[in-house]
Specification:
This protein is of the alpha+beta class. The chain folds into two domains: 138 residues, no CATH class; 191 residues, no CATH class. Helices cover 35% and strands 26% of the residues. It has a six-stranded antiparallel beta sheet with strand order 1-2-3-6-5-4. A five-stranded mixed beta sheet has the order 7-8-10-11-13. The protein has a two-stranded antiparallel ribbon with strand order 9-12. A hairpin with a 2-residue loop joins strand 7 and strand 8. The two termini are 29 Å apart.
């Protein structure tokens, strides 16, 4: 549906641009978009910037005021109490971002159309805009090599977790992109994923909380070992494979998955940037974190040390290695109650 909505928005912008100037802030054409909000393709009078406007009755406006600007795309609210109208205006501020803005516009329209009530649609718009904002900020520098490697490892583990616990539980457990203490956590079980590419025996631990099992019944450190190869899978291919599996069994999760990817700085619009490197998986090993596991934790660190980063040598962790079948059996419990 998104492609049809984008086409409708393009036609709306063309029509709005062709209309005579007015004394109002926007020249706008109403779009035939499903959902509880009125959607208009707008042209800002002051500078001819394209915008997408969402309108509803002022009674549906959220109590909290929202606003953002990120890398050339802005959003602002307009509360017109005399006319009893509430408007969300999303505007592209730079012409070079026109193609991304069209994708964002189609995505926002599709998000709002999924709900029957205006308040739910507005909440969905703000959630989606927050994900896009994180993506636009991260996009400035692009994903570096280590970020690509790390994301590939998490996606491989997401798919592995889905095989034993189901896609709903796997997506729900993937808390790394949203700032969770561990990359995956659900039903008292945590997974901290570290990914290496090539010859590597050292892994980086970035905080005092990453290997702290406080509040968990089980915490597993998962080491995904990749290698670059002529044949294998690149990041866009891995994302595509996961989406195909989701669409086949749990299509309602695709948007949540896309949101998580946006937060870490990846979107399909930039897929061509990540066709290399190509990976093959050498191994996936699971280590049980417990009292004797070598680590730094907040509770075990002297007062005055607020944070710490350190490296672990995987060669010293053999006594904590657990069988893959036992690890998968533990991960299966993360799917209970899904």
């Amino acid at each position: 549906m998104s492609d049809l909505l984008i086409a409708a928005a393009r036609l709306g912008w063309a029509k709005a641009s062709a209309t005579a100037n007015s004394t109002r802030a926007w020249r706008a054409i109403r779009l035939d978009c499903p959902g509880p909000l009125v959607v208009l393709a707008g042209i800002r009078e002051t500078d001819e910037a394209r915008s997408l406007l969402f309108e509803t009755a002022i009674e549906n406006a959220p109590q909290k005021h929202e606003r953002f600007e990120a890398d050339g795309i802005s959003m602002l609210e307009e509360r017109n109490y005399p006319e009893r109208n509430y408007r969300i205006a999303v505007v592209v501020e730079r012409p070079d971002l026109a193609s991304i803005f069209e994708i964002l516009a189609g995505d926002l329209m599709e998000s709002a159309a999924a709900f029957q009530s205006a308040t739910a649609a507005i909440a969905a718009l703000f959630a989606r805009l927050n994900a896009w904002q994180a993506f636009l900020l991260a996009r400035r520098s692009g994903l570096g090599r280590q970020s690509i490697v790390g994301l590939a490892g998490e996606l491989l583990m997401l798919r592995r977790l889905a095989e034993v616990a189901g896609w709903p539980a796997a997506v729900d457990a993937w808390t790394g992109p949203t700032g969770g203490l561990h990359d995956f956590a659900r039903r008292g079980i945590g997974l901290e994923v570290k990914t290496s590419c090539g010859v590597a025996s050292l892994i980086d631990i970035s905080s005092l909380d990453q290997l702290d099992e406080a509040g968990l019944s089980v915490l597993l450190l998962v080491h995904v070992h990749l290698m670059e190869a002529l044949e294998g899978v690149h990041l866009p291919g891995l994302v595509g494979e996961i989406k195909e599996q989701m669409i086949a069994s749990a299509p309602f999760l695709v948007r949540t998955f896309d949101d998580a990817l946006l937060v870490v700085g990846y979107a399909d619009v930039d897929a061509d940037l990540y066709l290399t490197p190509v990976f093959q998986t050498l191994s996936t090993r699971f280590f049980r974190v417990g009292p004797s596991f070598p680590r730094l934790t907040r509770a075990g660190t002297s007062i005055g040390i607020a944070e710490a980063r350190y490296r672990l040598d995987l060669r010293t962790l053999q006594s904590h290695l657990i069988d893959e079948r036992d690890a998968l059996a533990t991960m299966k419990h993360m799917g209970e109650g899904a």
